[in-house]
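[step 3/7] inverse_fold.run input=structure_tokens len=390
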């Protein structure tokens, strides 16, 4: 059986969580942390399926076909032509090359690099089959990933396709949703596994609730997703993937998970999204203003992602975050609150002493995850210019 080097990509800040997850899924400790991802060596196609199906914090899983040092532009063509592409796809399938080129002496943009690789692939097919595969930009069967970073070049297959944050349960969107991958990463960073009640009082489309429910009930992240790019590969083994899916069982834990939002339309969206998870057991959501909410249990955890709306006046958004801090302090003593926002400035106005502050990215947007333990005395005096909380 052939083994491959894999790369699981994620958002900056979630690398350690992803490594722990990869090691657990593959029952190994041999993965290594890289920038925005985890490298895993010597793994099978079965492992590619498993990572795609189970990982909550990976965005995509790449299977490396060649890695080499570029000495000139032609090296890319030469190496690209030597890869046994015909093992992976047929001439009738469409391809797309996704390329990045940074700090390269030979490629000042990715367009030339991807054209060269496409020519290499097509020339190889022409020599073997007398025909070449077509390129499709919108609906390719096969996604080829080309990464050039100074003189280092990696050619891989994207085994995932669209990012794994597309879990398949979210049929209704609301404005400014948090990524499913980020929400799952935040919950894992907090260490919550379902032991204490969980609330998201600004739940929007219900991402934290859905991810928390799936995590605590052991529902695989890929359970509701239909498409993975590896299904188009020639060596794809349907039975192997079916066996992985079959093994994933619905858990039996019954964690208390509830959400609310001030906007009825958000609550309707969250209800619909959550209804796809496990009918009858999915988290409850209701219309409620956070500022009229009081703790339903002596202990619990809040995950929230308040609006970071740049359309609001700066003064108002800071005041809004200050009110969140006041409300938590007065009404949620004994609880933990994890607040993620891309408005780092506004977060400083919460006015509580953070236990942890973790830089994280929601896609390209930099944000902070703040952990507050709400006990008597956790209030920080409101002083002008609370500029240290970065
Ligand atoms: C950034 S969005 C949250 C997105 C959510 N995490 C998701 O993944 O869809 C902020 C949410 O806070 C809600 N919100 C704003 N003010 C609120 C309030 N006073 N009480 C409850 N919810 C509020 C908004 O309706 C919006 O859905």
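[step 3/7] decode complete -> sequence:
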């Amino acid at each position: 059986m052939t083994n491959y080097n894999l790369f699981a990509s994620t958002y900056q800040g979630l690398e350690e969580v992803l490594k722990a997850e990869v090691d657990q899924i593959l029952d190994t400790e041999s993965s290594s942390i890289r920038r925005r991802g985890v490298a895993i060596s010597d793994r099978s196609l079965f492992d590619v399926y498993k990572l795609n199906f189970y990982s909550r914090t990976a965005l995509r899983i790449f299977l490396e076909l060649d890695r080499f040092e570029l000495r000139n532009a032609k090296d890319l063509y030469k190496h690209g032509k030597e890869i046994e592409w015909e093992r992976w796809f047929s001439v009738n399938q469409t391809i797309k090359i996704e390329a990045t080129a940074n700090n390269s002496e030979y490629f000042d943009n990715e367009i030339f690099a991807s054209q060269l690789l496409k020519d290499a692939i097509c020339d190889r097919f022409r020599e073997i089959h007398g025909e070449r595969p077509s390129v499709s930009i919108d609906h390719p069967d096969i996604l080829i990933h080309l990464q050039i970073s100074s003189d280092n070049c990696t050619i891989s297959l994207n085994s995932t396709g669209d990012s794994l944050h597309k879990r398949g349960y979210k049929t209704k969107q609301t404005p400014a949703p948090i990524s499913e991958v980020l929400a799952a990463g935040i919950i894992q960073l907090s260490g919550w596994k379902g032991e204490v009640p969980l609330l998201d009082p600004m739940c929007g489309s219900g991402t934290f609730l859905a991810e928390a429910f799936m995590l605590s009930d052991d529902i695989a992240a890929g359970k509701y997703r239909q498409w993975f790019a590896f299904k188009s590969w020639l060596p794809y083994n349907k039975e192997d993937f079916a066996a992985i899916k079959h093994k994933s069982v619905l858990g039996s834990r019954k964690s208390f998970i509830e959400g609310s939002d001030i906007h009825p339309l958000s609550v309707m969206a969250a209800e619909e999204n959550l209804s796809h998870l496990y009918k009858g057991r999915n988290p409850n959501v209701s219309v409620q203003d956070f500022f009229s909410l009081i703790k339903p249990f002596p202990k619990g955890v809040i995950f929230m992602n308040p609006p970071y709306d740049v359309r609001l006046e700066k003064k108002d958004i800071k005041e809004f975050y200050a009110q969140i801090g006041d409300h938590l302090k007065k009404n949620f003593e004994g609880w933990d609150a994890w607040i993620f926002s891309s408005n780092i400035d506004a977060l400083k106005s919460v006015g509580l002493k953070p236990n942890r502050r973790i830089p994280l990215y929601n896609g390209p947007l930099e944000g902070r995850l703040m952990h507050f333990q709400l006990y008597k005395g956790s209030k920080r005096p409101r002083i002008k210019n609370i500029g240290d909380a970065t």
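[step 4/7] annotate
The pocket of S-adenosylmethionine is lined by residues 174, 176-178, 201-202, 204-205, 207-208, 261-263, 266, 289-291, 305-307 (CB under 6 Å).
Residues 180-223+255-373 form a domain with the Rossmann fold fold (CATH 3.40.50.150).
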